[in-house]
Amino acid sequence: MLPTNAGLGFKPEHFPAVIETKPPLGFFEVHAENYMGAGGMPHAMLERLRADYALSIHGVGLSIGGADPLDKTHLARLRSLCDRYQPESFSEHLAWASHGGEWMHDLLPLPYTDETLDIVCDHIDQLQEALGRKMLLENPATYLTFVQSDIPETDFLAQIARRTGCGLLLDVNNVFVSCVNHRTDPRAYLRAFPIEAVGEIHLAGHETEELPSGPLLIDSHGREVSEPVWGLFAETVTEYGPRPSLVEWDNDVPDFATLMTEASRAEAILEDARHALAS
Amino acid sequence: MPSHREFAQAFQSALRDTALPPGAHTQAPEELTRRFNVYRNNVAHGLAQALQRHYPAVTRLLGEECFSGVAHLYIERHPPRTPILTEWGVEFPNFLGGIETFSHLSYLPDVARIEWARSRAYHAADLVPVESSQLTQIAETSYLRLHPSVQTLWAATPAGSLWISQQPGAAAPPAAEDWTSEVVLVARQGLFDVITTVIPPATARLIEALLSDTPLGAACAAAGSDLDLTQALTLLIRYDLITAISQGRPE
């Protein structure tokens, strides 16, 4: 289990600052696929980081929502990465990234149907079996929906958690992005979310594009967390209790101090939620 | 209703097509293409960026705009077959060599080969160099095991000097009338430092013989009479590239 504190997505350019200043963070998160070489700098940094901090390994390439069987080689690589670093948490996405042996390297959306529910549950069973541990599954940011979807996303996630025993990673920015894009109410989504299964929360920044029908939000991970997302985060942890909470900033990465400002804000909100819970 | 397999197939095709995947929906249907374009852009931009990270000197030589155009052609022809982006792009040097517009840039594929070798060296396994006290054991019958990052590249152009000239603060590249072929050593010293240096052909032949488990005496013979053995061994020792010395064939 990750500590119930704020964490940051690790960026190699921040390594010297992290080692020198030993910032008071609950954990760091890394993308699994960036640590699959044999050796060199990436592993040297991750080992050093791991010695001082709790670790979350976050996969982006397994294509859990894909129509193809999971890639056995990739499963084995994830297994050996988890064996080597013994992370407190492993997570992946409700999305797909490959088809027919080709990887698109993006988190692509899927329709929510009985067929895809079976596929996703089957893939998660296989992954949890291969890793010998429970995983967390993250809700996606989406830009369109599918007419063939006949299960709401929150129900889909709840059924996956129930059938596979996996936990969920609640990305509050993804909730806000998707709900604004689909003109639905993020608070209603959060009320319907199977919150008891949530083992981690993600926070990130998004871009806004104005379309004639209204805003189109894009999950860019390239700026500060937006005010409405901070608000939804605070409401969620105040109502349901604090969770390990990660700030992601993957593009146009700023200096480490800027990331720490974001992490400190998340920690302050978690602290308020702990007080609210105690009183 | 399409099966999930049919859906994924159609969605994947739509990423590089003008059609939209079956069932794609939004409340303002006239904005559907704009919304689907977010996925198209994410895929194209993400992959082009990844290729640029592999090939920074080629990017500087071509300019970002031109590189981006080439990257999109490459993505169409050689899409990733791996979930690990650092493993994607091995065919790029040959792909550059096949582009007619660049036929006057004969050095470009060689510079790209150097960059791919550097990326492999960066991620190569970690092996510690032998202690300097062990170096006295080196004899004609010794097998020298080299660091797994060690690679030699033979270029018909001064690709090594050109690559070096693209680095910050480096001297200008050689003038075109002084161009010669070059052999380049790419390897990693310790955990971090990827080195790129031009070496004599005989040194490269020695290194290649050592890499194929030939004992030092025979490797010297394979390298040819113009080998400067002291210079070659000094190079390998200076960059910490000898990781084992054994008198029998290594396991």
TrEMBL record, chain A:
SUPFAM superfamilies: Xylose isomerase-like (SSF51658). Signal peptide: none annotated. It comes from the Bacteria. Gene3D superfamilies: Divalent-metal-dependent TIM barrel enzymes. InterPro entries: MbnB/TglH/ChrH, Xyl_isomerase-like_sf. Belongs to the UPF0276 family. NCBIfam families: PRK05409.1. This is UPF0276 protein DL1_17255. The lineage of its organism: Bacteria, Pseudomonadati, Pseudomonadota, Alphaproteobacteria, Rhodobacterales.
From TrEMBL, chain B:
Residues 7-96 form the Putative DNA-binding domain. InterPro entries: DUF2063, DUF2063_N_sf. It comes from the Bacteria. It holds the Pfam family DUF2063. This is Putative DNA-binding domain-containing protein. It comes from Thioclava dalianensis.
